[in-house]
User: Fold this.
Amino acid sequence: MAGLLIAGGPALAEDFPFGMELTLDAAPMRGSKRVPRIEIAENGQAQVDLWCKSAAGQFSIANDSVIFIPGQVQDNNCPEDRATADDVLLATLAEMTNWKRQGDRLTLTGKQTLRFLLLTN
Assistant:
């Protein structure tokens, strides 16, 4: 069990994944291999690669509460179906209110639930 502790702090399963990359737990959209992913820097700055578009953003954490503030979005000349899915996903991320980490999984909850897998390779 000592391997799960950080300098006497909480277990790793309870830590928000700052400094990590996450992939949405979803299948790719038809005609694409891309699945949305988020890279979160230690300071909460995020780079979000959606189904087609890309966006910057900022995560703020307090206990089990989370706030995601989307920033500038890059259009990338997306097909309409992917552009719409990107807009919905970005709006859903902005509505998240709580987070929970269990091992290599991060669950964000709000009006909907989003699950992400931490890339550990």
In short: The chain is about 10% helix and 40% strand. The radius of gyration is 15 Å. The CA atoms of residues 24 and 116 lie 4 Å apart.
